[in-house]
Design a protein that fits this description.
The structure is a single chain. 20% of the residues lie in helices and 42% in strands. By secondary structure, the protein is an alpha+beta fold. It has one domain: Sandwich (Immunoglobulin-like). A hairpin with a 5-residue loop joins β7 and β8. The longest helix has 23 residues, at 116-138. The model is unreliable at 1-15 (pLDDT under 50). Residues 1-24 are annotated as: Disordered. Keywords: Membrane, Transmembrane, Transmembrane helix. Residues 1-16 have a biased composition (Basic and acidic residues).
Amino acid sequence: MAEAYDKQPWPRREQTDGYTSAPGETGIAVEHLSGLSGAEVRVNGRLIQELDKGMNFIPLPPGEHYVGVTGLGFRVSNHSVVPVTEGRTTYVYYRSPLIRDTSGMLGPQPRMHAGAVLAYALWTLLGVWIVAFLVFAYSR
């Protein structure tokens, strides 16, 4: 049974400090999961690139790197120390904030938005108000 497991067709991932990595180019793969805007990435304090939605690869030398991500148009940024191993890609997940001046989520696993319940409640309330206004306006 162990032989079948060792011959798996997908790359085996390792976990380091909660971050998973797989054989590949040396660096980090930041997945921008969702959000209303883009984001910018700083590594060790230096602006590296703007993130597109989806997976974004950033080549980095081996070692621990201080990674910060800020949603465009937002003032609050998220930071994490990410380990990078030679010959491996470390996976990092970022989710933009839903409400201005709240932080997004940056870390080793995808997580729900910060303030998601409040944002969904406000959007629902706004939608109900707009529908009620339109019904009232056109019922005359």
